[in-house]
Amino acid sequence: MLFYSFFKSLIGKEVVVELKNDLAICGTLHSVDQYLNLKLTEINVTDPDKYPHMLSVKNCFIRGSVIRYVQLPGDEVDTQLLQDATRKESMHSKQ
Amino acid sequence: MVLIRPFPVPTEGIKLQLAGVEAFVDNEVHGKGNLFVTEANIAWVRSDSGDGFKIAYKKMTLHAISRDPGVHSKACLYIMINGNTLDEDDNFEVESPAEVEDGEEEMTEIRFVPEDESALDEMYKAVQDCSLLHPDPSSDLSNEDPDEMFEGFPAGNGDGNPQDEIAEEDEDFDEDAERLEQFMRMQLHFGNSRNGGSDNEDDNIGGGSPSLSFVPQPGQFDDI
Question: What is the fold, at CATH topology level, of the domain defined by B1-6+17-89+106-135?
């Protein structure tokens, strides 16, 4: 649940979500759930020629399982803290 | 390629049923029919011929409402499908290994255009709610091998391997983790109170609570 909480802390921030089908969507993170499904608002696609329909879309719901990467706003993330927390989570799950 | 064939009208677990919905599959018009958003899948059945198709929630990449008159003359529910079949059972067209190596995965775009634009929000919400009943098996992080989570990452900031570092920094690291947890809780708290005023369920996926309210009981929603 660490990443769920983590993404919750990024709500309202701008992120770029890269999907496994190579589509990259830039938008404001609106909400997230325990499956890391993401809802974005004010979206833009980086490759509108390939996905013309996405031009007309402002908000979308993305299934967590199709996400490859999420580019985070660097200024908003305490990387040291996050690194430590992921280690702790990993330690816990090993016990 | 999407197979349109005689399709039985769904009868179970119907969350939303809407008549007079026009379906487009990759820009190909399929006429008007009944749209069924059910707990098992999304089905569309042509009113005149009884032909139709269904979409498995697990095949969906994303869904959205499109209202830009410059792109489509009428507002629609847009669904992006992973691959060129809509259902997990539809394995008549098996992806060849060459395609997978290419990294260029196929996708299918479906659009549902209701007669009355005001139905779109309800359609979107129904698809979202039912989609939550079908999480990807691998999305449960607790089942993952923790070692796997570190694969591909550089070995931390220090020279040693990450395991050594953890042992050395254990005390600091507990403190920091505590701080992060507090921070997260704070964020969660603010997040909830911010949305809490409107009490609009649509603002929060899964009702905005971290509880697993949408997780079905084993077998409860098994596809027939």
Answer: PH-domain like (2.30.29)
